[in-house]
Design goal:
Elements (H helix, E strand, L loop, with lengths): L15 E2 L4 H11 L3 E6 L2 E7 H5 L7 H4 L6 E2 L5 H11 L3 E6 L2 E7 H8 L12 H13 L5 E7 L2 H8 L1 H18 L5 E6 L2 E6 L3 H17 L10 E7 L6 E2 L2 H21 L4 E3 L8 E2 L4
Parallel strand pairs: 1-2, 4-5, 10-12
Antiparallel strand pairs: 2-3, 5-6, 7-9, 7-10, 8-9, 11-13
Helix pairs in contact: 4-5, 6-10, 7-8, 8-9
């Protein structure tokens, strides 16, 4: 399932005309219990009116005098994480949704953040696996090759048994902080599940392999609480081609993560720090000329 704006947007949108009075717009907000009204004129979206705009404008003026003319909007298929970046970039509270130049819905910041909270791991403060899938799709749609590092802690079940789950949770938190510290700003990190972490990059295999070695070394050299020795094994899988077009990028990302996961399992079985999966290429891919 793709987690897009269309999944959470409010489709029944109350609007106001650009030539309506500000006083009327205020009543409309009060009656509908909303803090933002899209402004239309001749059926076209021309602005947005917020409570803040109204407070700064005399009630006898028209909406066109009070509205914010810069409209930040997205398409229904925009991912939740893309929408979050827009909220933060423009410091807005409402995002309008348009399709074929037609207003089809809106999303409030509080609604978006509540939905994103479902993909957030409370223990480590990292996103869950869906975040990686969505970011991978974004990279592929931009024409970037992607690489995945799948990190699995060694003998973690034994640590839980010997020291208790509370101590195990502390270690998971420490590992999450370590990975956040050493992961580059342009990489995407998540807690995949249990004692497994996944890092997605737009790097070539060689650069991604070097990063995996840095992360594994950071874990092995770290002094964890109660002086418990922690090591990890990792699997790496990469799509090497640039400008690769696929009819199902999400499926390609999922398969790539699975390939890296299997490689990490092999690494653990063979007591190796890192195993690089065989190059994965989805059967549904096709080449298109630039």
């Amino acid at each position: 399932m793709m987690y897009c704006v269309s999944n959470i947007m409010r489709k029944a949108v109350t609007t106001v005309d650009a030539y309506d009075g500000v006083r009327k717009a205020q009543r409309t907000m009060d009656e509908n219990n909303v803090s933002c009204l899209p402004v239309l004129h001749n059926g076209k979206l021309v602005g947005v009116l917020t409570c803040g705009d109204i407070r700064k404008t005399h009630p006898n003026r028209i909406v066109a005098d009070a509205m914010t003319k810069r409209v930040i909007s997205v398409a229904p298929e925009t991912s939740l994480w893309q929408a979050k970046r827009l909220f933060e970039q423009y410091e807005i509270k409402t995002l309008l949704v348009q399709e074929n130049d037609r207003l089809v819905g809106l999303v409030n910041k509080s609604r978006l953040y509540a939905e994103l909270g479902k993909h957030y791991d409370l223990l480590t403060g990292l996103y869950r696996s869906e975040y990686i899938y969505q970011m991978g799709v974004e990279l592929l749609e931009k024409g970037s090759a992607i690489s995945v590092i799948f990190i699995d802690l060694n003998e973690f079940g034994q640590i839980d048994k010997a020291y208790g789950h509370t101590q195990g949770d502390l270690i998971l938190k420490e590992v999450a902080v370590l990975l956040q510290t050493y992961a580059p700003a342009d990489a995407y990190l998540c807690r995949f599940g249990g004692d497994e972490f996944t890092l997605l990059t737009g790097y070539d295999p060689a650069k991604c392999e070097a990063l995996a070695e840095v992360l594994l070394k950071a874990i092995a050299n770290h002094k964890f609480s109660n002086n418990i020795k922690i090591t990890a094994a990792a699997g790496l899988a990469a799509s090497r081609q640039q400008n690769l077009i696929t009819s199902n990028p999400r499926s390609m990302v999922i398969n790539l993560v699975n390939s890296a996961s299997l490689a990490s399992t092999r690494a653990k079985q063979e007591k190796l720090p890192l195993v690089i999966a065989e190059r994965y290429l989805a059967s549904e891919t096709a080449w298109e000329s630039a």
